[in-house]
Every structure is written in structure tokens, then in C-alpha cells.
Specification:
By secondary structure, the protein is of the alpha/beta class. The protein is built from 8 helices and 11 strands. The strands form 2 sheets. Strands 1, 2, 3, 4, 5 and 11 form a 6-stranded mixed β-sheet that branches. Strand 1, helix 1 and strand 2 form a beta-alpha-beta unit. Helix 1 packs across helix 7.
Length: 239
């Protein structure tokens, strides 16, 4: 069903790809989340109705490249996909996490070499050239389609380092507390600057309308209201 606009017209549907369940950014079963709500609000402001499609990030990038989606979230120009990218709509704050009792010290990207590492899909593209080189040279580096897997591996002692966004890591800790001991003290190694994410569009005209909608919700307070509603999911820094 098309969304009826206040003017009496109908909103144009846009098929947008999102990564699978990654709270607090995407709650797949509820069609909600910080990232989901922001993209939906910007599109709605531009008279567009979002139709979500969920899949692992690797598959979504292939679908965008093959024009099987109108757009996908959580991407940027480093993806290697020929698309029309929006303005930055959200920033992720990625960290490297280790169990404190291991006494692992990570002061620079080169320090990751030699450790077993679990990261999110396509981290090798978005976390910068130094990280890309490290991942290519490290046979013990892996990426997970299901981000919750990283948390399970770390707390079970099966990997040395987990890499991901701080809020996603904290949210998954809450989900796996009945399976592994998430009370184990950890150290966060702040190796990465914030990662700005954009929406990749097939059609540049849709990209322009999204950008205008994004500017509008930033100006009218809608963006801040959505962001504030997920503020409880921001964990304190642990060093």
C-alpha cells in the first residue's frame, strides 16, 4: 500500500537494503532502529516510502551493483560499488575489544597482526587502508555475516580481538548473557576514527531527494529526536 501524503498524493516506494539484525541500529523483526528510523524519516520528508529488505552486507552490495535494490544503507564510497552516495547520515564508532585478563596491548594498527580477529562484514573496506592491509596479511582474520557471532567468540575465548561498533557490541552482550559470561572485564582499544555511513542509490535523483529530506529533519529537530530516543544504547568507554 502506498503511503498517503498530507497533500493527498501518494509517496513513491523505495526498496532499501539493510544489514540483518544489529541493535540498536536495525531491529529486523520490528522494522525499527536508530539507522532504520533515520533513513525512513529522511525519505518520508522527501515524499518517499521506504520498503526495507534485509540481508548480509556482502549480498546487499552485490544486489546494489546489480540494480536489484533502489538503495542500501550502511555503505560509502569505499565499498567499490558504482552508486550515487548520499551525505553522511550516521557515524559508527568502531573499537577493538579484548578480554582484559589477556593483557593484550593495541596501540596501532600493526599491533593487530598475529592475533585472531573477528570483525563485521566488509570491515576490510571501511576501516581504512592500514586495516585493509592488515586483514589481507592476517590468516587469522575473519568477518561475520551475523554480528552477534563476534561477541560469542570473544567471551568464549575463541578469538583474541573483536572489532565493531560500541553500541552494537553492547546490545549483543545483552542478548547473549545467558550463553557466555559477558561480565568478564574487557579493554576497548580506540584504533579507529568514526566511520561515516551513507545511503547508496541507483538513481541520482532519488539520492538528491534523500539528501534534501536529511537536511530537513536535521533542521526541524526530527533527526535529533530519533537520535535521542536511542541514547540509552550508548555505553560508557571502557579502557
Amino acid at each position: 500500500m502506498l503511503l498517503v501524503l498530507p497533500s493527498g498524493g501518494f509517496a513513491e516506494p523505495v526498496l532499501v537494503g539493510f544489514g540483518t539484525h544489529k541493535p540498536p541500529y536495525v531491529f529486523e523483526q520490528q522494522n525499527s532502529g536508530l539507522e532504520y528510523d533515520l533513513v525512513e524519516a529522511a525519505l518520508a520528508q522527501a515524499g518517499l516510502e521506504m520498503k526495507p529488505y534485509y540481508a548480509p552486507l556482502e549480498r546487499l552490495h552485490r544486489m546494489l551493483q546489480n540494480r536489484e535494490l533502489d538503495a542500501m544503507a550502511s555503505t560509502n564510497q569505499t565499498s567499490g560499488v558504482d552508486a550515487h552516495y548520499s551525505d553522511v547520515y550516521i557515524e559508527y564508532h568502531n573499537v577493538a575489544v579484548t578480554l582484559r585478563h589477556r593483557n593484550i596491548r593495541l596501540d596501532a594498527m600493526d599491533d593487530l597482526q598475529g592475533y585472531s580477529i573477528s570483525a563485521f562484514q566488509r570491515a576490510r573496506f571501511v576501516l581504512g587502508p592500514e586495516f585493509s592491509s592488515m586483514s589481507a596479511a592476517n590468516p587469522r582474520y575473519r568477518e561475520e555475516a551475523r554480528q552477534i557471532t563476534r561477541n560469542l567468540l570473544l567471551y568464549a575465548g575463541r578469538i583474541d580481538v573483536m572489532i565493531g561498533d560500541r553500541r552494537i557490541i553492547q546490545a549483543f552482550n545483552d542478548e547473549i548473557a545467558d550463553r557466555v559470561d559477558v561480565s568478564q572485564p574487557v579493554t576497548e582499544h580506540l584504533l579507529f576514527p568514526p566511520t561515516g555511513y551513507r545511503v547508496g542509490f541507483v538513481d541520482p535523483a532519488l539520492r538528491d531527494r534523500f539528501d534534501q529530506g536529511l537536511r530537513s529533519i536535521r533542521a526541524n529537530g526530527g533527526y535529533q529526536k530519533i537520535d535521542h530516543s536511542y541514547a540509552a544504547h550508548s555505553p560508557p568507554v571502557t579502557e
